[in-house]
Predict the 3D structure of the following.
Amino acid sequence: MDIRIDSQPYAAASTDALVTFVFDEDNKWQGILGDIDRNSQGKLAQLAQSGEITGRPLELFLLHFPPGLAAQRLLLVGAGKREKFATADLRKISGAALRHLKSRGVKNLVFLTREGFAGPDAAQSVAEGLIIADFESDKYKSEKKNNNKEIQSVSLAGFDTSVAPHLDAALDRARVVGESINFARDLINEPSNKLTPRMLAAKAEAMAKEAGLAVEILDERKIAELKMGALIGVAQGSIEPPRMIVIRYTPENPKLNAPVLGLVGKAVTFDTGGISIKPANNMEKMKYDMGGGATMLGAIRAIARLKPPIPVIAVVPATENMPGGRAQKPGDVQVSMSGKTIEVINTDAEGRLILADAVTYAKKLGVTHIIDAATLTGAIEVALANVHVGAFGTPREYLDQFLESTKAAGEKMWPMPIDDEYQEMIKSNIADIKNVGSGKGGGAITGAWFIKEFTGDTPWIHLDIASTCWVDEGRPWLAKGPTGIAIRSIIDFAQKL
Ligand code: BES
Ligand code: MN
Ligand code: ZN
């Protein structure tokens, strides 16, 4: 899909579809929309009187052969209240438009922006929305979802071309971010027989080489040598050996006293639960239990190209969680790389185990700040449904700084408590800690606390994406399946840290 800025007058553009958006206002026929209506000799406003154009969020109004326009179609996308509308929301507008028109065989379109949304940030949001919306999960289908239906080109009209070079740079950034998110979504989609820990490592290595990043894959021998007992404990139930994927971005001109950001992501390529086996119902979903790892691979892929002035290291522990003959059993004690001993109460709480060693290793590599992302707990769905990512962190200022980035990125995350009372719940009778909290409730918090046991005083953010990394139902701007959540926030944060 070719996306470019267009300075031609939109009314004369002979395109398959002209797209713009409408606010939920009493007098919506203002500015550009007023021009379009005047061009149509008031026909549009007349039509709207039937109540078909309300401007409600993501309402889609499609008009064929619109009077006064050279375009074959006019698509008006509802944008809700103007006061509530943010630049980041443009992604949903352009995405919903693309999916609606693509399924109708449209090949090219013009996206006309509105007054107040004509700068580089707006252009970036529109373009990102298009790239993310264009993604389909049909790799293994003989008959593709949109057979022969492809959007070939999109022109962005109405943007402030007095800053044309900035607009072009914004489109470049959008391609980097959008394609990195889709890269991660592709990985998350892969079934576990097509993406074992070794295959994930190979794909990560290829991505790193293409991006000019340094990469090291620790194999099972190296993992044993480093005494990563928690990761080994999880991996030993499978005949597939684990991998620890390490990718480094080093800036050419690092800023003074630059922090070193560690991106740690859980990559369980399949989670059966191990000996504490999961029920059959929905178990197939556990192929996406590597979503946190994919998130970090996507983020560092983008970081390599956007070149922030701080070093970034991605550390992704990859393993299966299987109930094989050598599998760890409930009650087993594992010695983590840090030396801390862990009583494994439930082998299905495996994510925190592999993150423990990954975090320890990241610290050994010199990271000064950590973000981890993991499909860690079903409990986060109980707390926040599939609306918000659960965001934990210490110190609080560090978490707040990250939450600013989530707002800029338009990704919903909610701060979760991490008070000391919850630490009590993971004290073990026979080891230093146990991998499941005692008592009722707080499952997402005790999971977070387990990781905190290993990050110690290092500023740390933990994102529980178990309920947001995958959607069973498509959204107007997004195919069903992997969402790519958190990647944009992490990229933004890395650029601002
Ligand atoms: N991978 C799961 C969490 C999960 C659940 C991800 C649903 C996506 C959708 C994780 O490894 C797990 O099994 N967690 C357990 C922890 C429990 C045993 C303390 C859970 O949440 O039930
Ligand atoms: Mn599990
Ligand atoms: Zn898991």
